[in-house]
Amino acid sequence: MHSIGFLLVQSPELYEQYHVGFRHQVEQWPVYPVSMIGKWLVTNFCKQSSCVVADFGCGVAALAQKLGGYNHKGTCPFRVHSFDLVAASDLVTACDMANVPLKSKTVDVAVFCLSLMGTNLADFLREAHRALKDVGILKIAEVRS
Length: 145
Fold this sequence. Notes:
Layout lengths: L2 H8 L1 H15 L6 H13 L5 E6 L5 H7 L9 E7 L7 E3 L12 E7 L7 H11 E10 L4
Parallel strand pairs: 1-2, 1-4, 2-3, 4-5
Helix pairs in contact: 1-2, 3-4
């Protein structure tokens, strides 16, 4: 785990401060990337019987909240695994994104939305590759600065 992550785990109040600032910043953006990824998932996978999503660095699990409530003809095809350093809700599994509790080749879509900021981001990507099915899709959304 990189030093920033260690600090956030050791000081939960810093984690909360980070996310409060993040929410204020997002309010200024013309488009929220999590919403775009959610719409893409619904458009491309809603008619399938199932779609396993791994959300790496999920924060407050916005993607799980969006997809968990999606219902197509009485069924929800989405199973979202939300991972972050700190569990901000019951939907989040607290862990290092370089070592998530998923079996290999079980994920249809791996998502990194504004979460590739650690010094060990190559480890995060390797872990997503391990979890993805051979025909799985990797979605990355980062802002330009």
